């Protein structure tokens, strides 16, 4: 009976992404909203990159990491949203198995680098505020590049591990993914083989990565808060809290949604909550980061204004 059962199993070669809404009347509105969000995100992050590149005052470690974060935000939204917009236009909801795995790999790669960069930025603020005399040597260009390289290496390892582990699962039954992009929790539900080890791997690696990095970030900011409270100047204290507050806001949004999505044991049925978290991870966070971090920063605003005025004078 076992050989016969095996012959009855048909390997899934493509998945059907159900998307955010199944009502056809709402799809044009979803298309317009997400196209607008994509253009705003890419435009905002490119503006930050332009300001950092052209303004010498912004050639500091903090803005070096912010520039990298902007590139990641553009990549993160580009991995998911354009493909979704294309499916809405063509009314074709299928995605090949290989394309699904590629999307999953690049999404987890970019999100993983994001995790490590946010911790590197917390370490940068710790050195700048708590160790100002040795800041230039401890956060030299070599150290910055090493931190970014380590972030890439760890994120590639994490993303590759989950992608390879997913290829060991059999998909032979329903192929409808209740989401607008391919992600691990939703694909686990479609497997006709046991996903227990994959779920433990996802939970364990998320716990190690997120747990370790969150603890390091919190430790950094405990020291920062203690140092800032000792600053006598009200203006200096306000500026330090403003910079650190922006970073903490991004950290809370990023890790809050990530933990909800990945640190769950057991194959829970996919719901609209997962789609909402997915929108937050892939669209809202990358769109808000330029506003939270840099566009309200006087140095960045001044650099952007000079770029725009310079272009107008040339024309």
TrEMBL record:
Instruction: Give the location in the cell.
Output: Cell membrane; Membrane
Where's the G-protein coupled receptors family 1 profile domain?
44-293
Regarding the membrane, this protein is recorded as: Multi-pass membrane protein
CDD domains in the record: 7tmA_OR3A-like
Q: Which domain of life is it from?
A: Eukaryota
| Entry keyword set | Cell membrane, G-protein coupled receptor, Membrane, Olfaction, Receptor, Sensory transduction, Transducer, Transmembrane, Transmembrane helix
Q: SUPFAM superfamilies annotated for this entry?
A: Family A G protein-coupled receptor-like
| InterPro entries cross-referenced by the UniProt entry | GPCR_Rhodpsn, GPCR_Rhodpsn_7TM, Olfact_rcpt
GO MF assignments: G protein-coupled receptor activity; olfactory receptor activity
Residues of the signal peptide: none
Instruction: State the PANTHER family in the record.
Output: OLFACTORY RECEPTOR
Q: Which family does it belong to?
A: Belongs to the G-protein coupled receptor 1 family.
Protein name as catalogued: Olfactory receptor
The lineage, from the top, is: Eukaryota, Metazoa, Chordata, Craniata, Vertebrata
């Amino acid at each position: 009976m076992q050989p016969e059962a095996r012959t009855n199993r048909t390997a899934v070669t493509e998945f059907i992404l159900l998307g955010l809404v199944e009502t056809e009347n709402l799809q044009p509105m979803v298309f317009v909203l997400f196209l607008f969000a994509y253009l705003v995100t890419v435009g905002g992050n490119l503006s930050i990159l332009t300001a950092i590149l052209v303004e010498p005052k912004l050639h500091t470690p903090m803005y070096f990491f912010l520039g990298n974060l902007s590139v990641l935000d553009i990549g993160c939204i580009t991995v998911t949203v354009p493909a979704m917009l294309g499916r809405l236009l063509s009314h074709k909801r299928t995605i090949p198995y290989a394309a699904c795995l590629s999307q999953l790999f690049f999404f987890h790669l970019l999100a993983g680098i994001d995790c490590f960069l946010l911790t590197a930025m917390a370490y940068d603020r710790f050195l700048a505020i708590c160790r100002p005399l040795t800041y230039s040597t401890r956060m030299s260009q070599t150290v910055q590049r090493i931190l970014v390289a380590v972030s890439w290496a760890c994120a590639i390892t994490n993303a590759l591990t989950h992608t390879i582990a997913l290829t060991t699962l059999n998909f032979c039954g329903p192929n409808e993914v209740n989401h607008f992009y391919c992600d691990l929790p939703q694909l686990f539900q479609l497997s006709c083989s046991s996903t227990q080890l994959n779920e433990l791997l996802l939970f364990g690696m998320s716990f190690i990565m997120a747990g370790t990095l969150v603890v390091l970030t919190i430790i950094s900011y405990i020291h920062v808060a203690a140092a800032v409270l000792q600053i006598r100047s009200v203006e200096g204290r306000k500026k330090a809290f403003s910079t650190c507050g922006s970073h903490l806001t991004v950290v809370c949004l990023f890790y809050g949604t990530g933990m909800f999505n990945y640190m769950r044991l057991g194959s829970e049925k996919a719901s609209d909550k997962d789609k909402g978290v997915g929108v937050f991870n892939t669209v809202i966070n990358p769109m808000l980061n330029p506003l939270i971090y840099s566009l309200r920063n006087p140095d960045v605003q001044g650099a952007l204004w000079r770029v725009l005025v310079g272009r107008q004078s040339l024309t």
